[in-house]
Amino acid sequence: MNPVTPNQTTSDAIGAAGAPSPTFSPLYQQIKGLITQSLQSGEWKPGEMIPSEVELANRFKVSQGTVRKAIDELAAENLVVRKQGKGTFVSTHHEARAHFRFLRLVPDEGVPHYPESRFIEVKRLRAPAEVARLLDLKSGDAVVYIKRVQSFGSVPTIVEELWLPGLIFKGLTAERLNEYKGPMYGLFESEFGTRMIRAEEKLRAVCAEEGDAELLKIAAGTPLLCAERVSFTYGDKPVELRRGLYLTERHHYQNDLS
Question: Which of 233, 118, 193, 223 is nearest to 245 (CA)?
Answer without folding.
Answer: 223
